[in-house]
Structure of MFS transporter:
Amino acid sequence: MDAGGALKREVRALWGGGTGLSLLAVAVAWGLLVGTRMIYPIVLPSLQESFDLSLTVAGLLVTVLWLGGAIGQLPGGMLADRYDERALMATSTFVVAAALVVVVVAPSAAVLFAATAVWGLGHSLYPIARITLLSNLYADRLGSALGVTMATGDVGQTVLPPIGAVLTVAIAWQAGLGFVIPLLVVLGLFILAIVPKTSSGGGGAGQSLEGVRTVAAELRAPSMGFITLILFLYIFIWQSFTAFYPTYLITVKELPAATASVLFGFFFAVGVVVKPIAGGAYDRVGIRGSLVGVLAAPVAGFVLLPFVDSLWGLAVLTAFVSTMLGSGAITQSYLAESFTEELRGTGLGVIRTLTATVGAAGPVAFGVIGDYGYFDEGYWALAAIMAVVILLTLRMPTTSAIQT
């Protein structure tokens, strides 16, 4: 089969039917939101200096950002089941923009932590509303649509951190983070103007709470138990790695900050290619084969990372590790298809909040490891955890978890 022709047909299918502009708006805003969040690891050394933070406390700051993003996903999912997803996504961009204003003018570490928490909570309104909206617009191509939006997210994570690094070096860390504020406001307005008004459910609060109880009961299903544990371990690995990889490259590998930021951006650049392929693979072969396919290379990457010092070698290993970014398009598609339309937002909220809340311990745990001088051993531990994820995937039932 002609790969180029297949790609063109897929693009036409995603763009056609009047849904293309909505996909563009959702994807670009998502790229800006997640790209902004990945500027934090780039400016973390500057924050350590400005606020006199240890690696452990700096890791806690990143944990607060991720924890806010985790805790808010359950109410965010419940809101997505009841209200207009378009309004939720626009509100997310506006709240994040306001929180970043406070972050860049923070006079103390306490204010910095509080504003970071609000930033995470604002961010949490977007992910599930995005998934439920796309599940309505692309019922037959959800994996591909999510793969495209996640790849666009990686474009933001590729481009924005190096820009933030340049502005941090040339001006100050506040400029390296604050330049995205007006862009967030513009994208929020763009969503309101382009994305159709839609809601996946419309049930009341009682129905949403009943949905939480239903989903909690369904966690006992073998397939749901497997995917929940897999997601938790993956999030723990991903957040631990992304929080301190630039710091590791600068302090241990002795790379210039600008080079470290480009290498960090390269990690997400590979994801731009991997995520649509992973989403398409899920649509064709299901979760087991597609998930193992994207998680095998990171094991080797984590194991070899402490032994490689050359820039080109680090670039190759970064590419190895970055294939794990394809797992999002797979696991989120599987979860979205496991729930009925009425429970989709609430179900995603329960699972994502549960796994991301526990997984948010990763950055602070890795910060403690770094403070004690065991960065290399930390990456070997991540390799071992990823191997466990692969074994769990191979044992995972392939049937849908929820049939209500």
Q: What stands out?
A: Confidence is low (pLDDT under 50) at residues 3-7, 202-207, 400-404. Residues 222-251 form the longest helix (30 residues). The two ends are 38 Å apart (CA to CA). The chain is about 80% helix and 0% strand.
